[in-house]
Amino acid sequence: MRRGRILKIFLGAGICLTAGVMVNHITSMTTTMCTEKELAGMSYTLQQFVDTQSAGAASDPEAIVAFPDDPAQNAPAAPGTDPNAPAVSDGAVAAEPTPSATPKPKSEYDKVGISVAADYVNVRKKPNTDSKVLGKLYRGSAATILKRTGDWVKIKSGQVQGYIKSDYLAIGFSAEKLVDKFGTKIATVDTETLKVREAKNTECAVLTLVSGEESFEVLREDKEWVKIMVDGDTKGFVSKEYVKVSVKFKKAVSIEEEREEARKKAAAAAAAAREDMAQQPSQPSSNSSSSGNSSSSGNSSNSNGNSGGGSSSNKSGRGGSSNKGSAGKSNHSDSSNKSSGGGSNNSSGTIGSGDGSTIASYALQFVGNPYVYGGSSLTHGTDCSGFSQAVFRKFGISLPRTSSEQSGVGKKISVSSARAGDLIFYARNGHVNHVAICIGGGRVVHASNPTTGITTSNIGYRTPYCARRVIGD
Q1: Residue 159 half-sphere exposure, CB side, CA atoms within 13 Å?
Q2: Pairwise CA distance, residues 464 & 425, whole Å
Q3: In terms of Cα–Cα distance, which of 101, 94, 90, 100 is closest to 80?
Q4: What is the b/e burial string over 210-246, where b = at least 16 CB atoms within 10 angstroms of the residue's CB?
Q5: What count of Cα atoms within 13 Å lies in the side-chain half-sphere of residue 101?
């Protein structure tokens, strides 16, 4: 009986234990299944997010991907974007910014080369030293760079196009450092007429007027004013608002140009030699005694006419300083020149009507030769009045030494009626200070200033003061 009760107890305990185990097993399975499903769903969601966010960063394996609910991020941000950048609306996808490198500074002279040769460098047809020489780029002259070929560059300068070794050129920022040394600043008038003033204000005196499209050397430049050299001794200020300032360099010289220049210089030297020989016949009488030179030139200028006075002053004037002395020596010399000049022109004339073109052609031979204050040499240097005096003396017409004095000889004419061979005068504050020779076509030839030398200009490059005709009609 007791044994039966114990068996019942064990059976009941086994049944309870078995039921508990079964319940725990079922609960465990249910929990496991739910957990796996939830994890699987979360895994899929995260993978989808990562795939979406990583689409633009596939090329960058080290890109950082932001996850949702990351405490370090307030909102998901695409890799490589600035979290502080403005949000993109309407479903637009913000483009990934490309890192920008700091641009290298670029010189305005990147395509310009300035010769740094001791004298000149040859411009060759091909990029080798055995190639034909086409021209020369002298020290300080500039060229436009067309292309680079190894150690050579192809350049164009003036009428020359060819190759130069790059070692002989300063390019870019190196060229910029040489601009002030070798370049000449030029102011080109950008209005019809421009006042040249004595100082940098509109209340001061007007020295002269210059016409549109004429160019002048810049002596000084500041924010509002530019000081220019008009000619010989006329320098003044113009408003920067009405001029364009540029830099001018010398150009390469072709072999043909060099030969032509040599020919011109030889012709000019020969003309000067003939001019000297033409003065020799007046010398013998005064050469009889060395002391007689001064007395004959001083006392016989009236009787000896233009030949004696012109010769002595011109020969001594080659040094420049003696020329200035002869110009201002005494009014006696100037007045005798004036009277002889007027007398020569009022006679039947050493040259006849229409020969003004011959004078103009002769004067044009000396274009490009130097300007020298006080000089009177057509080849070695002259100023404006020395130029006109020397040119007209070639044709037997004597002129006084200064432009102011020359403005009183011959016959006064209107500037509009001036023709080749007439003299055109310019003034500063009402006083004549420059003279030029009309060559026809509204242009003049004159010894302008130390920079341009003997050159041609528009007759109205500055306002003409008066015109005189010193040749026979």
Answers
A1: 8
A2: 6
A3: 94
A4: bbeebbbbbeeeeeebbbbbbbbebbbbbeeebbeee
A5: 3
Tokens for 230?
């008009």
Beta carbons within 8 Å of 147's beta carbon, 6+ residues apart: 153, 154
Nearest CA to 452 out of 392, 381, 356, 403 is that of 381
pLDDT in tens, 185-203: 999 999 999 999 999 999 9
75-89 per-position pLDDT tens digit = 444 444 454 544 444
Tell me if 472 sits within 8 A of 353, measured CB to CB: yes
Task: Give DSSP secondary structure letters for 214-231.
Answer: -EEEEEEE-SSEEEEEEE
**Phi, psi for residue 467 in degrees, rounded to 5:** -135, 145
Contact 142, 249 (CB under 8 A): yes
Beta strands in 173-242 (DSSP E): 184-189, 193-197, 206-211, 215-221, 225-231, 234-239
Other C-beta atoms lying within 10 Å of the C-beta of residue 471: 26
**Cβ–Cβ under 8 Å, residues 123 and 160:** yes
- The whole-number pLDDT of residue 293 equals 40
Cα–Cα distance list, 225 to 145, 181, 187, 236 (Å)? 33, 22, 11, 10
257-266 long-range Cβ contacts below 8 angstroms, 24+ apart: 257/135, 257/158, 257/159, 258/135, 258/136, 261/368, 264/365, 264/368, 265/379
Q: Are 117 and 167 contacting, i.e. CB atoms less than 8 angstroms apart?
A: no
Whole-number Å distance between alpha carbons of 125 and 135: 9
Q: Which among 190, 250, 243 has a CA at the least distance from the CA of 221?
A: 243
Q: Read off the pLDDT band of 272 (50, 70, 90).
A: confident
CA distance 390 to 412: 21
Query: 3-state DSSP: the chain helix, strand, coil percent, rounded to 5?
Result: 40, 25, 35
Question: For residue 17, what pLDDT band results from cuts at 50, 70 and 90?
Answer: low
Task: Give the residue from 361, 355, 458, 473 showing the smallest Cα distance to 410.
Answer: 473
Contact 346, 340 (CB under 8 A): no
Phi, psi values for residue 2, rounded to 5°: -65, -40
Question: Is the backbone of residue 80 left (phi > 0), alpha (psi -120 to 50) or beta?
Answer: left
**C-alpha count within 13 angstroms, C-beta hemisphere, residue 87:** 5
Q: How many helices (H) and strands (E) does the chain have?
A: 12, 23
Contact criterion met (CB below 8 Å) for 453 and 380:
no
Q: For the segment 198-254, what is each residue's pLDDT rounded down to a tens digit?
A: 999 999 999 999 999 899 999 999 999 999 999 988 999 999 999 999 999 999 999
Q: Give yes or no for a contact between 384 and 363, defined as CB atoms under 8 angstroms apart.
A: no
